[in-house]
Amino acid sequence: MPAPESARHTPRAAVPQADRTPHPVVDGDGHIVEALPVLTEVIRKVAGPDAADHFLGSSPTYASRSSTDGRLAELTGDQRRPGTWIPPWWSLPGNTLDRATAFLPALLHERMDEIGLDFAVLYPSVGLVASGHPDDAIRAGACRGVNTYLAELTDGLQDRMTPAAVVPTHTPDEAIAELEHAVGSLGFKAVLVNNIVERPVPGGPAGARWYDVLALDSVHDYDPLWRRCVELGVAVTVHTPTMGIGLRQSSTRYVHNHIGTFAAGGEAFAKALVIGGVAHRFPTLNFAFLEGGVSWGVQLLADLVGHWEKRGGPNIAALDPAGLDAALWDDLFARHGGTHFAAPGLAAGLRGQADNPPPDLDDYRGSGIASPADIARMFERFYFGCEADDPTIAWAYADSLNPCGAVLRPLLGSDIGHWDVTDMREVVGEARELVEHRHLTPAQFREFACDNTVRLHGGMNPRFFDGTRVEQYARKLLGHA
């Protein structure tokens, strides 16, 4: 029998925010957990009964114990099998007050001071399932329903929170349609863009799938979507898990599938934005990769720079075997090859081994990159959502090690509403430990816990924070005071 809740939770005392920091705390990634029965009725209202009834069984993660969905049941006991990955389970908070708070934005609004947050951007949970649904009509209807649900539940609470609308991206047209409805009709200021689309392999065997990351080698041109984001003043924020893909397919261990899932989805998209030239073609568009931390961003920056220095632009020519000294090559093999390399023509043939280039030699073509500094400048518009207990946040500020002396832009993403947060009142205090342990300076903590989220959204829409508790601070930071 489980221990009483009071015995399982010994939260630290909540400290008033005013006593803790001289600046606001802005949560760049909290969560609302959609109540499936209520959400289904909203979908029914805006998209019809077919979309509602078919979507109801799409999310074993958030289904109730009494659900008839068989996905979890088939993964129990002897039926666990390779190739069938176990989805998240017990994914919501384990204490009563926080669990209710995840469902009820009005309760979160009431508790903001207790939790220590001045403002929060709240992302959907079931919305991640909606945006990736394979059926076109169900996907469109479910996303429209999720966004309507979020707008209705947060109406009147905008001084302390704003929801992010979910934008499906199986085609640019469907993405733009929902983006324009969410921003223009429902009044959203933040959006969650699905950055990985599972597609059938053209001409491939039944069931074969590949994953489109939108910004590179896509079957569609998504530039109209990025352009519309700029015009509407919304940042592109992504939050796509990769559980069930590649090496995250354990049928028995959710933790195996979960670790690194958002980082992998963010890295694939970020690489595509740089190499595919989107970051170059849209120099005012901000991007955020949520819930994956920033350590992968540091590594990606180093890898993109390192690869450009060896293979980018004119540097690739140094690897062309046509530039080898044939006479020296033959002499080296004659003197050091012995009998193993004595066959006539062998040495000459080896000189051309791996001489198999594609028609276009420069993998950085079209990226707008002419030097490592260009890559570092692109990362100035990349923001990385980090949870409060992430000890690697300090790596973002390791300018003595990072290429070009770069400082990356981590932002506080509490993940309140999910199992990661055992007590909502501990989030800000846990983040402050980075300063107490001297991993961050107070100025760096201010950037992490406030300024970077303000810049992410306010840099796209200077009025993003108007009417909120942080309006004056945001105006001053953005130079609009």
UniProtKB/TrEMBL annotation:
Keywords, ordered alphabetically: Lyase
Keyword Lyase: yes
Top-rank taxon, per record: Bacteria
Ranges where the Amidohydrolase-related domain occurs: 130-314
Pfam families named in the record: Amidohydro_2 (PF04909)
Ranges in a coiled coil: none
Span list, region Disordered: 1-28
Name of the protein in its database record: Amidohydrolase family protein
UniProt organism field: Streptodolium elevatio
